[in-house]
Structure formats: structure tokens, C-alpha cells
Amino acid sequence: NTSPNLSSGINAEYGEDLMAEYKDAFSLFDKRGDNCIDSVQLGDVLRALGLNPTESEVKKARADCEASGQKRIPFETFLPIYLSVQRNAPNYSAKDYIEGLRVFDKEGNGTISSAELRHVLTTLGEPMEDKEVDDLISGYEDSQGCVNYEDLIRMLTSKE
Question: Which residues contact 22 (CB under 8 A, 6 or more apart)?
């Protein structure tokens, strides 16, 4: 458990309103009313609070909790995990993603083949599932099987 001094220090640093927002989101996943979540819900709670942790970050945090015998995670344990993931989150702009995809734009016309985009998304970095890629590019593929990656990235980053 976290000492009252740590909690009050975090409250002072992040503000009581923000802490209340975190606690509210956390409590939505607390099905037993014991101020804890199941460790398997950790990624869902982090994502509900606007983070996008990698699967390996979630697995590591869960393994750390479970190694200490915690199958249920109290808010006091969750908060430092949240803050760590938040601190380590890359801060990429739409321009960064567009530049990264421009490498695959062989024609220089702002599009890449959906097959190539699918290959990149399902094999590089943290791979996506085919269904996730289908959902992602749905409505962005033209009649030639190409995706305007600038439009796609702008749509994805405008949701933030």
C-alpha cells in the first residue's frame, strides 16, 4: 500500500481534479467494490485513461503485480503504473507518422498499397491482427487498392 505522504504528494503534483478523474475511471472497472481491479483489466484501464501502452508494457506491469501475489490491483498500486506508462509514452505527431509511411510511397503521390500497409502493420513493431488492420483502413482504400496515408493518419490523430 502507498503511504498517505506519497498519495498527497501525487495529489499535489497532478491536482485533485485529475486524481478524481483517474479514480473515477478506475472505479468503473472495479466490479467488486473493493477499490481493486483484476490484473487482467490493467491494459483496459490504462487505455480508458487515454494511454496506449504496448502489450509488453501491460504484461510486465501485470507480472510485477502478480509476482507480489496480487491478482487484484488496488488504486494505490495502479497509479504509479499509470504514471510510469504515461511518462514513457512516445509523443509522436501526425507529421512523424506521415514521414514514417512516406518511405513506402513509391509513386510519391501520398498513397501506399493497402497490401504493403497491411504487411507493415502486421509484421513490424507491435504487430496488429488482420481484423484490426481491416477495421483501420476500412473506408480509406481506393479503387486501386491504395490508402491515402496522410488522410488516415490525420483521422487517427484527430481522435486524441
Answer: 49, 75, 79, 82
